[in-house]
Design brief:
Radius of gyration: 28 Å
Number of helices: 3
Number of strands: 49
Structural class: mainly beta
Helix content: under 10%
């Protein structure tokens, strides 16, 4: 689909075997088309009308149809005598990344300037600065219709507008331009109880960072407000014109009948939730150097903001002057911390009555090569829900009481959530008070299972996970599009950013970008003044062979690693910042802890061998989330050795007829090892458990395969070298999974190459998505000429 996330390599493996004649298919298609036409005609006959008023003119309004839940097989029951559920929309905020000054600031939820203004109740689980129990509703995440008795927020009747702001607030700091955006809907549109209306506002620039949200509504009138970012201009089929108190004529539409991010195209757009308000919550600030990035630029693709408002009751004389309004502070500065949302929900369950505890689970393997910080979380359920918790790889992370006000609670521990792992939200219920089966739905007598995770990283990770009956879910992401285009003007997109050469830098064995969680720190594993020979060097190198290079400041941060390595080769840094290295002369693979202290080795020191105790010129390490690790072995063996976390051999995964097993990466969610068979120009795919081999990827047209790596979203890349030709060439090759992979475990890939000029002796590389520039940052390390090394950094504009 052209997304930064690799496609999930799961699905039906057995394929389609039944053959159906063309005439049979035509009969079925014709019948289906006729049925759809009849339903469409009937819907016009049965559709109720919105009453007209002086405030607006409305056309006929159909009953709400929850298309998305229906498509997932939602039960056909309908709650009795309840307000209609809100409209089709979805999931999460898409936000920003690193700034140009190179510093890193941890995002902190701002402390509430009026901490006591919560209307008489004090949520026990509420963290300082956490905000409203936002009652979001979507086709995926249904909302309860309850009210609170918290104090009202101030009321205003501003127009939908954007204006410059000169404020003393910290969010407006020269030289960055600042502005205020406002979305407002008058209460006069609410002709019926539980009315949902939306209005849109263009962002008006390529990028803006939203740093503060100021709600202006009274909870007695407005149940909740949501602000969405939409990819295209909202174009409702039945828009209505209404005048604000300021006299501006704005366009609104009924959100029960049409999606929040309604589009004229046939593509269904879920949009991204970037703000939510309910129950009289106060202002919300993102904190220093953090925010939600919106705008029209590629990679952001959020040029429109939409306010969705749920009005509790029909308008009356007392409420005619009320509004639902959100004011937002914006700055042109890119934040250093990206805020994004991952939502977990289950909408296909029923609960037996008279049970003390029943659990429902939504579990997905979350894509990504690293980890994300958990800033805050929010749980949501109805009257039978008790605790809702999050676990990662069966390790409990956080939980919340569904009977307390549903504020976003700051995660005091700032857990790092490992990607490539199973994340599971578990909702627990007590149905002892019910005499009948409790089903999922939007009514008060129904139930819900929702958990919202606010994540922080240097790139956005917007996604949602929808659980099915057995708990295993479908994960869908809204990552930026960072696929290399099929037709590429390389000269117009590729540029050299920097070339690092210095006397103390030897041949470069390995590179890792993002060392210690800093996206600008490059860890370099080099050979000082040594070169690889046919015989092994018996003594360790006396100089430091590990260097941390600040790519933004262009300076060395620190060096270490002297006296440990005979001839450095491969480098891997795991999600816990442990450093894994291989040495082709000492015949060892090493694990250093984050401080650089030696933790363990595998292999026999200075002894080549072919049994389970020995390695023979090992080349690289890949680490699984359960602590197991894999060593590619190597120059004189034809295998990958799997070890447990303590260094015990688990299995030998054979690679018959391999010719230099030179690099490997692990795709965690599909449990697949990608192994570079260097001299055969193949990337071989192995099941990480059984060792079963699947069809290889042939890269012979691009040369020998020297290295494999992943970016933040789990996309896999190869570094290849055409070395046996008069004019040598080096390529970066991106693996793009074809759509066929939805239907089979292993299949073909679209191979998208970029020629990297000026690279003469490539050995290892690193690739990272630069959200601020919407580009791939590429770093290539070389083993030459002679004992010298070089690191070249490129930027490839997407």
């Amino acid at each position: 689909t052209g997304r930064c996330a690799t496609m999930e390599l799961r699905g039906a493996r057995d394929g389609w075997t039944r053959k159906v004649s063309t005439n049979t298919w035509l009969k079925w298609l014709g019948g289906a088309a006729g049925l759809i036409f009849v339903i469409w005609i009937v819907s016009f006959v049965l559709r109720p009308s919105l009453p007209e008023d002086d405030g607006f003119k409305g056309g006929p309004a159909p009953e709400h149809l929850d298309l998305f839940i229906g498509s997932l097989g939602k039960d056909e029951h309908k709650p009795k005598e309840q307000a209609p559920p809100p409209p089709p929309h979805a999931e999460a905020p898409a936000n920003a990344s690193q700034d140009g000054n190179g510093s890193t600031t941890t995002y902190v939820i701002a402390r509430d300037p009026n901490p006591d203004d919560d209307g008489g109740f004090t949520p026990v689980a509420r963290a300082p600065g956490s905000r409203e129990p936002s009652e979001e509703q979507s086709t995926l995440y249904m909302v309860d219709g309850g009210q609170s008795e918290a104090d009202p927020a101030p009321t205003s009747a501003a127009d939908n507008s954007s204006s410059s702001v000169d404020s003393g607030d910290n969010w407006c700091t020269p030289p960055w331009s600042c502005s205020s955006l406002s979305l407002s809907i008058p209460a006069t549109v609410a002709e019926e109880p539980d009315s949902y209306f939306c209005t849109a506002l263009p962002v008006g620039s390529e990028h803006q960072t939203l740093t503060k949200f100021i709600p202006k509504a009274r909870q007695e009138v407005v149940h909740h407000m949501l602000v969405y970012a939409c990819e295209s201009k909202p174009e409702p089929k039945r828009p209505m014109k209404v005048r604000t108190k300021g006299g501006e004529e704005i366009e609104v539409w009924n959100c029960l009948e049409e999606p929040t991010c309604v589009s004229s195209s046939s593509n269904y757009e879920t949009g991204k939730i970037i703000y939510a308000w309910a129950l009289g919550a106060g202002n919300f600030e993102t904190g220093p150097d953090a925010g939600f990035v919106v705008g029209s630029r590629a990679g952001i693709e959020a040029p429109y903001l939409v306010l969705q408002s749920h009005f509790l009751n029909a308008v009356s004389n007392e409420t005619a002057a009320e509004v639902a309004e959100v004011e937002m502070h914006a700055t042109s500065k890119f934040p250093e911390k990206v805020i994004s949302m991952s939502l977990f929900s289950h909408n296909q369950f029923s609960l037996p009555p008279q049970e003390e505890r029943v659990e429902v689970k939504a579990k997905c393997c979350m894509k990504g090569a690293g980890s994300a910080d958990l800033l805050a979380y929010r749980v949501h359920g109805h009257q039978y829900a008790r605790d809702i918790s999050l676990a990662v790889n069966n390790e409990s992370i956080v939980s919340g009481d569904a009977q307390l006000p549903h504020f976003f609670t700051k995660d005091a521990a700032m857990h790092k959530l490992r990607q490539g792992s199973d994340w599971a939200a578990t909702c627990a219920y007590n149905t002892e008070a019910s005499n009948t089966t409790v089903t999922v739905g939007s009514g008060h007598n129904d139930e819900m299972c929702n958990m919202y995770l606010m994540l922080s990283s240097h790139v956005p990770f917007n996604s949602f996970c929808i659980g099915y009956y057995d708990g295993d879910g479908f994960e869908n992401d809204k990552f930026p599009d960072c696929m290399i285009p099929e037709v590429v003007d390389v000269e117009g997109r590729l540029r050299v950013k920097n070339v690092l050469e210095m006397p103390e830098l030897g041949q470069v064995g390995g590179l890792h970008l993002g060392y210690q969680g800093n996206p600008n720190w490059l860890l370099i594993f080099h050979r000082s003044g040594r070169e690889m020979l046919q015989i092994d060097h018996p003594e360790p190198i006396s100089e430091d062979v590990l260097m941390v290079w600040d790519t933004l400041a262009n300076r060395s941060v620190t060096t270490f690693g002297r006296g440990l390595f005979n001839l450095p080769h491969g480098l891997t840094v795991d999600r816990d910042n442990n450093i894994w290295l291989t040495d082709v002369d000492s015949q060892l693979a090493y694990k250093l802890d984050p401080s650089g202290k030696l933790h363990l080795t595998v292999g026999m020191s200075n002894e080549r061998g072919h049994d389970r105790k020995h390695l023979c010129r090992p080349t690289e390490v890949a680490v699984a989330n359960n602590g197991d690790f894999f060593v590619s072995d190597g120059y004189c063996n034809e295998r990958v050795v799997r070890y447990d976390a303590r260094g015990g051999v688990v299995a030998e995964l054979g690679l018959p007829d391999a010719n230099v097993v030179h690099s490997l990466v692990l795709d965690d969610c599909s449990n697949t090892l990608y192994v570079a068979d260097r001299e055969k120009s193949h990337v071989r795919l192995l099941d990480a458990d059984s060792g079963q081999e699947h069809p290889y990827i042939d890269l012979s047209q691009f040369g020998y395969v020297y290295s494999l790596t992943k970016d933040e979203y789990g996309n896999i890349y190869a570094l290849t070298w055409q070395r046996d030709v008069p004019v040598r060439k080096t390529y970066l090759v991106q693996f793009q999974a074809r759509a066929a992979l939805y239907f089979q475990q292993y299949g073909s890939f679209q191979l998208m190459p970029i020629e990297l000029p000026g690279i003469e002796f490539p050995h290892d590389f690193a690739v990272s998505y630069n959200f601020q520039e919407h580009a791939l940052d590429i770093y290539v390390g070389e083993t030459g000429p002679g004992p010298h090394g070089k690191v070249t950094s490129f930027s490839f504009a997407l």
